Every structure is written in structure tokens, then in C-alpha cells.
Amino acid sequence: MARIGVIGAGYVGLTTAACFARLGHTVVCADVDEAKVSALSRASVGAHEPRLAELVAEGLGTGRLRFVLGNRAALADVDFVFVCVPTPTGPDGAADLTFVDAVLDEARGTVGPDCVIVIKSTVPAGTTERVAAVIDRPVVSNPEFLREGHAVDDFLRPQRVVVGAPGPRGAAGREAAVRVAELYAGTGAPAIVTDSASAELVKYASNCFLAMKLSYVNSLAELCERVGADVSDVTEGMSLDDRIGGAFLSPGPGWGGSCFPKDTRALLSTAESLDVDFPLLRATIDTNHAQAHRVVGLVRDAVGPLRGARLALLGLTFKAGTDDLRDSPALATATLLAAEGAVLTGYDPCVSADCGPVRVLPSAEEAARDADALVILTEWPEFADLDWEDMASTMTGRSVVDTRNLLPPAKVTEAGFHLVPLGRPTP
Ligand code: NAD
Ligand code: UGA
């Protein structure tokens, strides 16, 4: 079993650390956030991630996992260092590598001669190669594909493990890449060992492809509305073709989260910097920006001018199953609604503090009190089970815009509501 250092205890770093400890490795997980390290050392996990707190407690209990403030202890006396720090969007749309570079600077003077540095943060093609040229240690790329809300399951049962070494295939770094792939032996996942630029691109290509599928289906939903088709039936029909598949075909208020928006922009920036025209990717991003405006249009059509309209927004996180509000389409929509003068209340099972223009209340019923319309923005399953007779008695208006096609149409309309779904005929 290996000694592993993990730098950054965020969604990816913490999951990596806790899961490697679960797989039997000894892990030191470092962060620069004192409050986070102190909480994690007490097994207090802030993120809403199934099983993560359990695995952290287990790792602390067995002694295979510990948390440290500052990176030194996670860089020295380990066999592998996993770099899991943020790579946000820079001012020009490219990935900002400041955090990664800072960690690698620290690693240069600290890691032992045989230690393998593993870049798990999402970084543009060519980054690992650049780092390897200036650091006298094996460096490999090992992108992460976990989804928030499923982080532990995705890490312990990944569909693939991708590791890339710099230099041409067959170069010395390949041995280090194979050693990294072996760390995941307990997961049973197929491993692809390749060059580092390819590994880095697998990550961007996957996220951007999924985002493209979603922009496609969001445009398709609008077309369905115009021709009187039902997008659910259309996508079901498409999904029975094995070559298409059924995943990532649900329309919504736009795709968001901490990665799709930044990764699509970063890949487009890479392409532009190399004079590669990638109109599909540009259209994927533009279509997504337009989607929040389209939702605002549907709300306007349902309630009339938005100035002074009281709207209850259900769901604020970027998708169900997470407490993450980063780049949430719900908040992008809220900002546009507020800019037109709407007065916003909101409810989300994972959000308690007010968010931008949204006054957050402790229940859907309280958020809906005296509202002119209700807008479903995140697909939390509990919204489908609301008592619509009850909602009707507390609301002033009778419009419900369901951007996730989550609600049972019959129940909502029987309670006297005018339901506006996405890409489906109005019931
Ligand atoms: P995050 O913001 O949740 O966590 C990053 C952590 O790194 C924070 O706790 C921060 O305090 C810490 N940190 C920052 N600078 C540091 C330093 N110099 N030394 C030690 N710690 C430092 O980020 P995340 O969502 O885990 O994303 C990390 C990387 O993984 C990004 O490149 C992201 O694109 C990629 N990724 C994220 C996901 C996801 O679902 N969130 C999935 C796959 C890949
Ligand atoms: C996504 C990828 O799915 C992960 O594989 C990847 O590792 C991760 O990004 C990352 O690089 O950070 P995540 O951000 O957790 O994971 O979210 P997804 O579940 O992919 O959803 C992204 C967005 O698409 C959300 O806003 C979601 O509501 C939306 N979506 C998803 C739809 O609108 N319709 C769908 O059918 C599916």
C-alpha cells in the first residue's frame, strides 16, 4: 500500500483522500484553510456528499487518514502527491493555474526523489508536459471525473481511470503513470495509460461533450414547444438508439456548476490560442447563456411584466443532490428576474442563507406565500411531492414554470394551476 499526499481538501481532494484511505493507502490531506482542516480533523465534513463523512471518520479512526494545515507534511515522505487545488477561469477565459503553480513550486523543494507528482486538478493540455520540464521528479496527469452528489461512488467505482505521462508514448514517465493507475486497482475500473496531453484532453473533451449535449437538448426543447411535440418523448425515442444513449438529455434552466462553465471556456480558449476554429463549442456556451433569458421569457409570458411580481423560486443549487451554488443556473435566472424588478423568495433543501437577490425561507410553502408564480429551478425530488392544494391556498397567483419537467402535471393542474413545462405542450 502507498503513502499518499493530497493537496487541497475540496470536493475532489477530500474525496480522493478519504477514498484512497478506504482502499487501504495511508493518506495525508493538506489544505491552507485552517477552519476546514480543523473541522475535518474532527470528522466534520461540510459538503453535502453521501458517505463522505462516514469515510472520513473511518479513515481518521484507522489512522490511515489525517488532515494537516499547510502542505509540507503532505509533500514530504510520501510516494505520490495528488494536486487537487482549484483551476478557476482566468480573465481571458483560459484556466488560471496560479493555485497549481504555487503548489508545484512548493513541491519542487520538498518531495523525495522517487515521489510521483499527480496533477488531478483539471488543467489544459500541455500543462503536465510544461511542469515536467522544470521539476526533477516524475509528473503525471490523472484527471478526475466524479460528479458532485455522487463523489464517493464515482471515485470508488469509476467508469475509467485515465493517467498520462509527459513525452512520447513509451517514455520513462510511463512507468510512473502505470504505478498511479495501480493505486486504483481496488476499484476494478479499466485504466487508460497514455501521454499527458491526451489525458488532459479526455477531461475537457468529456465535460464539453456533455455540455454540448445539454445545449442541444435545451434548443430541442424550444423547438418542441413550437411544433407541439413533447421533448420527453423525443429524447426517449432518441435514447433507445445505443449510439445516442439516454443520459444528459433532460432540458433545464441551463447547465452550471463549478466545472462545465469554466471547462467549456477553457477548452475554447485553448482552441483559439492555437488557431483551431471550434464553432460547436462556442455555440454550446452561447446557447447556455441564452437559456436563462429563455426561462425569464417563459416566466414573463406566464405572469406579465415582472416589475413588482412576487416569484417563489424552488431550488437554488446548480443541480439536485448538492449544496453547491457555484455557477448555478438557478441564481443566473434569479439575477435576470431581479433585474426586471421581480421580488424573489426561494427555498432549497440545502441552502439556508439568502442568495443574491433571493430571500431564502425555510420551506417551499413559506417561499410560496403570496407569490404570483412559482418557478422550479433545481430538480429536488421533494418538489414533486408538494401538496398543490395547499400551495394554491397560500399563493396569490396560479402560474408554475417547471424548468426541470419535474412536477406531476395532473396534480398541479387539478389544484387550479397553469403549468408551464419546458419543451412540452402546456397541460
Ligand atoms: P474546491 O474549491 O472544492 O477545493 C479546493 C481546495 O483547495 C480548497 O479547500 C482550498 O482551500 C484548497 N487550496 C487552494 N490553494 C491551496 C494551496 N496552495 N495548498 C493547499 N490547498 C489549497 O475545488 P474542487 O471542486 O475540489 O476542484 C479542484 C479541481 O478539481 C479543479 O481543477 C476542478 O476543475 C477539478 N474537478 C472538480 C470536480 C468537482 O466536481 N468539483 C470534479 C472533477 C474535477
Ligand atoms: C460534471 C461531470 O458530470 C463530471 O463527470 C465532472 O467530473 C465534473 O463536472 C467536473 O469536472 O467537475 P457536476 O459538475 O457534478 O459533474 O454536475 P453534472 O451532474 O454533470 O451536471 C452539470 C449541469 O448539467 C447541472 O447544472 C445539471 O443540472 C445539468 N444537467 C445535467 C441538465 O440540465 N440535464 C441533464 O440531463 C443532466
Automatic annotation (TrEMBL):
Keyword field contains Membrane: no
InterPro entries linked: 6-PGluconate_DH-like_C_sf, NAD(P)-bd_dom_sf, UDP-Glc/GDP-Man, UDP-Glc/GDP-Man_DH_C, UDP-Glc/GDP-Man_DH_C_sf, UDP-Glc/GDP-Man_DH_dimer, UDP-Glc/GDP-Man_DH_N, UDPglc_DH_bac
GO molecular function: UDP-glucose 6-dehydrogenase activity
Pathway involvement of the protein, from the record: Nucleotide-sugar biosynthesis; UDP-alpha-D-glucuronate biosynthesis; UDP-alpha-D-glucuronate from UDP-alpha-D-glucose: step 1/1
Highest taxon above the source species: Bacteria
Keywords: NAD, Oxidoreductase
Catalytic activity: UDP-alpha-D-glucose + 2 NAD(+) + H2O = UDP-alpha-D-glucuronate + 2 NADH + 3 H(+)
Keyword Translocase part of the UniProt annotation: no
Record Gene3D superfamilies: Cytochrome c1, transmembrane anchor, C-terminal (1.20.5.100), NAD(P)-binding Rossmann-like Domain (3.40.50.720)
Principal EC category: oxidoreductase
EC identifiers of the protein: 1.1.1.22
Domain annotation UDP-glucose/GDP-mannose dehydrogenase C-terminal: ranges: 312-409
PROSITE patterns: PROKAR_LIPOPROTEIN
Coiled coil: none
NCBIfam families given in the database record: NDP-sugDHase
Family per similarity comment: Belongs to the UDP-glucose/GDP-mannose dehydrogenase family.
Name by which UniProt lists this protein: UDP-glucose 6-dehydrogenase
